[in-house]
Amino acid sequence: MDVRFVAGFSPIVDDAAGARRFYGEGLSLPLKVDLSSDYTEVDLAGLKHFGLLTLADAARSTFGRNAWPDDVPRPQATLELEVDDVAAAVAELRGRGLEVLQEAREEPWGQTTARLLSPEGLLIGIVYTPALRGEGTP
Question: What are the boundaries of each domain within the chain?
């Protein structure tokens, strides 16, 4: 698997408003807030993607439901690794004995994602992001 760049990083937060206060007011990071979903993105030049993701959003993205499964450790953050071929990367990771939580699929925003959980609790996305490659709109 050849990782091209880190496509995104998002702490997984229980309190979206509190996280916005910490990262926006406390650390003075410029935030873009989608109030319809409580999703927040840090709008900083030179950064591919930095967001604040709720656990419910992580559960929907990974498992298609609003609650994180009790039998899967709660992730602390997401780290997305950009590759050229998500399905091939998933096959390679499985060949190394890693458990994949979510098979490769195309998301509504055009990104192809697969997900697994690291031993320290990072929700790892193996992704192909056309918008970050100049192939689509963000």
Answer: 5-133
What size, in residues, is the chain?
A: 138
CB of 126 closer than 8 Å to CB of 89: yes
Beta pairing class for 77-82 and 102-106: unpaired
Quote the pTM value. Answer: 0.78
Instruction: Report the candidate in 93, 92, 58 with the shortest Cα–Cα distance to residue 76.
Output: 58
Q: Which residues contact 68 (CB under 8 A, 6 or more apart)?
A: 55, 56, 58, 59, 74, 75
State how far the Cα of 113 lies from the Cα of 5, in Å rounded to an integer: 15
What single-letter DSSP state applies at residue 131?
G
Q: Kindly report the CATH number that applies to the domain delimited by 5-133.
A: 3.10.180.10
Higher pLDDT, 56 or 36: 56
pLDDT score for 38: 78
Which of 19-33, 74-88, 106-120 comes out lowest in average pLDDT? 19-33
